[in-house]
Amino acid sequence: MKKITAYLIAVIGIFLVSCLPVWAQFSLSGTVNDADGGVLPGAAITLEGTYKGTFADASGAFRLTNLKPGTLHLRVSLLGYEPVLQTVELTKDQQLTVSLTKTAVVVDEVVVSATRANQKSAIAYTDVSARELTKQNLGQDIPLLLNFTPSLVTTSDAGAGVGYTGFRIRGSDATRINVTVNGIPYNDAESQGTFWVNMPDIASSVSSIQIQRGVGTSTNGAGAFGASVNVQTNSFEKNPYGEADVSGGSFNTLKTTVRAGSGLLNNHFVVDARLSRIISDGYIDRASSNLKSFYVSGGWYGKKSFVRLNVFSGTERTYQAWNGVPENLLKTNRTYNSYTYDNEVDNYQQDHYQLISSHELSRNWRLNASLHYTQGRGYYEQYRENDDLADYGLPPVVIRDSTIAQTDLIRRRWLDNDFYGAVFSLDYNSFGKLTANIGGGWNQYKGKHYGEVIWARFASSSTIRQRYYDNDATKTDFNLYGKAYYQFTPKFNAYVDLQVRTVGYSFLGFDNQLRNVQQDDNLTFFNPKAGITYALNDRSSVYASYGVGHREPNRNDYTQSTPASRPKAETLNDWEAGYKLQTQRLAFSANVYYMKYKNELVLTGQINDVGAYNRVNIPSSYRAGIELEAGTVLAKNLRWNVNATFSQNKVKLFTEFLDNYDTGEQQINRYTNTDIAFAPNTILGSQLLYTPWKGLEIGLLSKYVGKQYLDNTSNENRKLDAYFVNDLRFIYTVKPKGMNEIAFSLLLNNFLNELYESNGYTFSYISESKTVTENFYYPQAGFNFLAGIRVRF
């Protein structure tokens, strides 16, 4: 606790420093225009090597004040224009004019700009660059690479960050976080979750990631109910390149990646390619992973248009570690895995095809349009002991006077799916006070679910690969949004964002007579958002926004209920307000949020009318908190990036249902004002970066996560303890003649050997007049390491 107290004092100290006066003497002001003399509002002006920056106003003007005298390296950039780097010797107040020229070819970033937040969006967001991802990319999945962003908590089934991994943001799980890749929806249409294991090493083909917290801006695909994650893959590379990465370490983890790009051929064509393989034994017993992937992209680029075809695929074979470790074994056998059958594996392949285009219709208008198709296919295999033959539609086996109704067997549960559609945005920029977008998409998912019995000790009348269930589902998602940003004065900006989203779902489910029949459901959602931003001066600004989000029930909510017991869609009202400050040595932001939920879906233990433990709507719940971020130059070679989230996450009224094996009934327990499951009240992240000499960076990376409850009862016997994990990272980069660079990396994960669990589940029941609680946990690895070398030509 002393460590955490010191951490909090440091965060508060940074905030106090931000409030101190700055005694610098000079200002730098100017105008940004294009080659024809037209002004370029929205251009970003930054001082490299510092946190100082601003944006050109509606007249193209900018002003930076409180600058220390000396040599400044000014960078001016705007989407679609070549950035300008200019050195300024500041000895007095100075004015200058910066001219930007249009890029020789269109840049890929224009495609995602419609769904990304910007400085006028009045919401909390974090941009993560390819450079930042590369520092951590030694084999672990994207959730682990994003671990030090605000309000984010990661977990790994295998305990070492390879295989099945995930994250929560503000306590919201993957089913409530919208994920897009190049503006194209990635969430599984039925579960609404995100399975990063199906895109192994996608981080090696990513140019940037934006995380929007809260409702965020309108986007395509699943409803953003806690956050949005917008991934952009390889961007345009003008020069040819080649790169080889090899890394490995604890648990026999090995990652090999080869990348290459043609650069611009014949002034118009580019080709990029990547091939990757990641293997690991995992921290948990037998929780191995064998992951393979490729990425190929070819494009035609012109001055006003481009067309790019992305084809990427991932194949994963992971040994299952889904059951977790029973609480009573945590101290004696933390790596326990209940699965022992040698082929208890998950096999899945997912192929993505994206045809992305952008066309400049005029100086003010641009059309972005994309077609996509994703094919997924695979199964997970399970060994089952003493399963009822009747569950597989098989009659008992009669041998003489014995009747055998149960058998050991091996089954495979298959998912074959197709996901296809189109997304678009029509972008308007007046190069004055107004920018706007009209966009949307139509997407359809077709999923085939079936199960096979591939072996049985007593086979009854079955045939090889006996199918014991077979059902299909179709889901259609359509959305249309309009966004507008208007600069009323040089200091005051407002935006409005309106979205209509419809969901149509056809599936095999139960009717009110408990017959399994084909059913349909159609939902329409209206998601309005609005916000304002006010610049206090060239260093600081304030903002506020309000947004509404909706989210439909998932596949299990539908198929394991009847129309009478089917849950309602969830609704979120999200209020956000914040303050941002940037000086030469300090960047600071504070964001306050209040997320009020209506009909949030949670497990209560209640059995519904088809005998399933299905999720039910709770009337009212909320998440409220403050997110603090700071980056500071402590010394010439020492930087500190730190973030902290303090929150309250409450269910106003929660009803728990416990099976009573003594009576055959369910006991009801009611709770008020309890904590939402898996929503820690405190999350802290820190990166202390030291550069003792050129080319060497040493990083102390720290993460604190407060205690979390496994359900919504706030029962101290059903929780994850708080944990504080520290990593050490060493990166040494050299640039020998004839090469771009060679980078050597060493990552010492959890070097203080903290024993902790990042996920789990619980269930309780009554037996012999006593309440019995069984907890299961997912332990994470203690001290472990990864080392790698990256060579780029």
The appropriate CATH architecture of the largest domain is Beta Barrel
Number of helices: 4
Mean pLDDT: 92
Through-space gap between termini: 47 Å
| Beta-strand content estimate | over 45%
Global shape = globular
Q: SS-based structural class?
A: mainly beta
Low-confidence stretches: 18-22
Main β-sheet: number of strands, strand sense, barrel status? 22 strands, antiparallel, barrel
DSSP helix fraction: under 10%
What's the CATH class of the largest domain, please?
Mainly Beta
CATH homologous superfamily grouping of the largest domain: TonB-dependent receptor, beta-barrel domain
Q: What is the fold named in CATH at topology level of the largest domain? A: Maltoporin, Chain A
| Rg computed from alpha carbons, rounded to a whole number of angstroms | 27 Å
